[in-house]
């Protein structure tokens, strides 16, 4: 099995004046194609910091990150942005939609940057909007949509470039239980269709949708467990 994510000794520090805050202290992790991984851990343990590195939104202070066979750990920002646009779909807790654009326009936006023609953009965006069940709401703006619908738009936007990796940082953090389950069903479908999914959550119920649970504590991996059967976890 080939690794889509290979992390070796990943470190990340922030400097507050002269004081160094070590947030990630040496993360080794391999994630294979089509895996479905939940990343858990206490607040401040470094989950979002790690997700931002995985998503090429930030660079590590040390260590190696090989994404789909490409060493991205020392890449310059421009190249990193290219890799991000091609390889990664990111879903955030706060949806991060542009308020003046319709659902369809929000979903099509990554294709504008990719230089796809208007006609093709609309067709491709409509296709993923259908996948998340929002056909009827495609011409509405975010403030005319529910939280769950906004998150569907954000998921469709993450999928529109056909990325090899879907990352989601607490995608159900702003949603009620029923809506969270619907959103998790969509992630399940994405994974079943062959994609690789990594998501952060605080909730065990949400994490149980994944096939593998990685727990962080104080910037290190505390445990990494693959599910072998329903409700059954082993190292
Ligand atoms: N840009 C930054 N500058 C300085 N410190 C930061 C920065 N970003 C994060 N940190 C610190 O790094 C640590 C880890 O933060 P991170 O956001 O990765 O945690 P988390 O596990 O995602 O927490 P939560 O569950 O609350 O979202 C925290 O102590 C945080 O204050
Ligand atoms: Mg976080």
Automatic annotation (TrEMBL):
Protein name: Macrolide ABC transporter ATP-binding protein
Domain ABC transporter: 5-230
PROSITE patterns: ABC_TRANSPORTER_1, ABC_TRANSPORTER_2
Keyword Transport in record: yes
InterPro entries: AAA+_ATPase (IPR003593), ABC_transporter-like_ATP-bd (IPR003439), ABC_transporter-like_CS (IPR017871), MacB-like_ATP-bd (IPR017911), P-loop_NTPase (IPR027417)
Family classification: Belongs to the ABC transporter superfamily. Macrolide exporter (TC 3.A.1.122) family.
GO molecular function, one term: transmembrane transporter activity
This protein's GO CC annotations: membrane protein complex
UniProt superkingdom: Bacteria
Cross-referenced SUPFAM superfamilies: P-loop containing nucleoside triphosphate hydrolases (SSF52540)
Phylogenetic placement of the source organism: Bacteria, Pseudomonadati, Bacteroidota, Chitinophagia, Chitinophagales
Pfam families membership: ABC_tran
Gene3D superfamilies in UniProt: P-loop containing nucleotide triphosphate hydrolases
Keywords: ATP-binding, Nucleotide-binding, Translocase, Transport
């Amino acid at each position: 099995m080939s690794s889509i994510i290979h992390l070796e000794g990943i470190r990340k520090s922030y400097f507050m004046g002269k004081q160094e805050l070590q947030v990630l202290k040496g993360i080794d992790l391999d994630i294979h194609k089509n895996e479905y991984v939940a990343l858990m851990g206490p607040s401040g343990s470094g989950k979002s910091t790690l997700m931002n590195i995985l998503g090429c939104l930030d660079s590590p202070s040390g260590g190696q990150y090989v994404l789909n066979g490409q060493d991205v750990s020392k890449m310059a920002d421009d190249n990193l942005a290219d890799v991000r646009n091609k390889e990664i779909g990111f879903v955030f807790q706060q949806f991060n939609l542009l308020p003046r654009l319709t659902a369809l326009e929000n979903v099509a936006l990554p294709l504008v940057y990719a230089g796809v023609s208007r006609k093709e953009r609309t067709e491709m965006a409509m296709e993923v909007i259908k996948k998340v069940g929002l056909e009827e709401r495609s011409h509405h703006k975010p403030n005319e949509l529910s939280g769950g619908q906004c998150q569907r738009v954000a998921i469709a936007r993450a999928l529109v470039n056909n990325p090899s990796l879907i990352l989601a940082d607490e995608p159900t953090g702003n949603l009620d239980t029923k809506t969270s389950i619907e959103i998790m069903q969509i992630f399940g479908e994405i994974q079943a269709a062959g994609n690789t999914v990594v998501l952060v959550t605080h909730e065990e119920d949400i994490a149980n949708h994944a096939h593998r649970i990685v727990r962080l504590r104080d910037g290190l991996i505390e445990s990494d467990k693959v599910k072998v059967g329903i409700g059954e976890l082993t190292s």
